[in-house]
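Minutes, project huddle
Topic: does the predicted pose make sense with magnesium ion bound?
PN asked that the exact inputs be recorded in the minutes so nobody has to dig through chat later. Recorded below.
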Amino acid sequence: MRIAVFAGDGIGPEVTGEAVRVLEKLGLPNLELVEGDVGGAAYRKHGHPLPEATLDIARSADAILFGAVGDFDLDHLERHLRPEQAVLGLRKELGLFANLRPARVFKGLEGLTSLRPEVAQEIDLLIVRELNGDVYFGEKGMRRLEDGRRQGWDMMSYAEDEVRRIAHAGFKAAMTRDKKLCSVDKANVLETSQLWRDVVIEVSKDYPEVELAHMYVDNAAMQLVKNPGQFDVVVTGNLFGDILSDQASMCVGSIGLLASASLAEGSFGLYEPIHGSAPDIAGKGLANPMATILSAAMMLRHSFGLEAEAVRIEEAVAAALADGIKGGDLGGSAGTVEIGDAVLARL
Ligand code: IPM
Ligand code: MG
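Predicted holo structure (C-alpha cells), as shared on screen:
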C-alpha cells in the first residue's frame, strides 16, 4: 500500500496530517507513505505547481491522499503556473476521470445545515462528476476582437467515449445504491449536453434495473435545495459537477465534511476533501480534518478493497460528531488535532 501524500497549500498539511494519523492507527501491514510537493508550495520550492518529481511519485504509488491547493498570492501567475494546475494536472495526467462526491447528513447535524432539518435529513446522494473533459480542458484564451474589445473564451466539448465511460461509472455506482440515476445537463441550450444526453440513454440499455432521469442543471440546483431526498446518484459533467457538489456540501452542514474520490480505470485513485486551502485559517490549527479523514476511508474502500476498515473510520467520524465534537465550520470550537484525537479515540 504505497500512498503518495500531497498536502499542498493552506490547511492542506494540517488536515492530511490528521488523516495520516488515522491510517497509521489502523495498523495496516505494508502501509508506505511518500510525500510530494504540489500547488503553491511546490511552485515556491521548484518553480512549478506540479513538478516532474511529484508526478513520478504519483505514478509509483497505489493511491494519492491529497490536501488542498490554492494561494491568493500566486493568482497573478500565468495560468499554467497557478496552484490549481497541480490538481488539474494530476487528474489529466493520471486519467482520473470519475469523481465521486458523496453527501449525506450525519446524525446530530440536521439543525446545522442551510436547509430546514426535515428537508436536510433526507439527503443521501452521490455526485459522479466527470473530471477529464468539458470546458475545464478545452482550448481557451484571451483575444482582441476587430473593434478592439478584449474577449476571453473557453471551449466546451465532450467526445462520446468520454461521456460513455463516466455514464458507466454513474450506472455502476447506482447499482450499488438505490438504483436511481439522474443525469444533469443543459441539453436545452448546449450541443455538448445534447450529445451527453444521447450517450447516457445509449449506455442505460446496459443497466435495465437502474431508473434513469434527466434534469437541466438549473432545475437540478433548485431541486437540490427544494427536495434533495429525491436524488440517489447524480452523474454530470466537470463544470456542473463542480458547482453542484459545493452546493450539496452546504445542504449537509459543512464543506468541512465532504470527501471525494477521483478514480482512474482500475483501482488507482486520488482522494481529497472537496474544500479548498482556506488561507484565512491556515496554520492556526482550526481546520476541520474530517473531510480528509473520510477521504482516506474512501481510499481504503476504492483503491484497496478494505471495506471494513473504511466503515470503521466513517463510524468513528460519525461517533465523534454525535458526541458533539465540532470544528468551527460547524459552529463548534474543536481544533484540528482535537478532532483528529477524537476520531482516533473512537476507532
Ligand atoms: C474542486 C475544485 C477544483 C475544481 C479547483 C481547485 C481547480 O474546485 O475540486 O472542486 O474546480 O475542480
Ligand atoms: Mg470545486
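Observations noted during the meeting:
- The longest strand covers residues 2-8.
- The chain has two domains: 1-97+264-347, 98-257.
No decisions taken; revisit at the next huddle.
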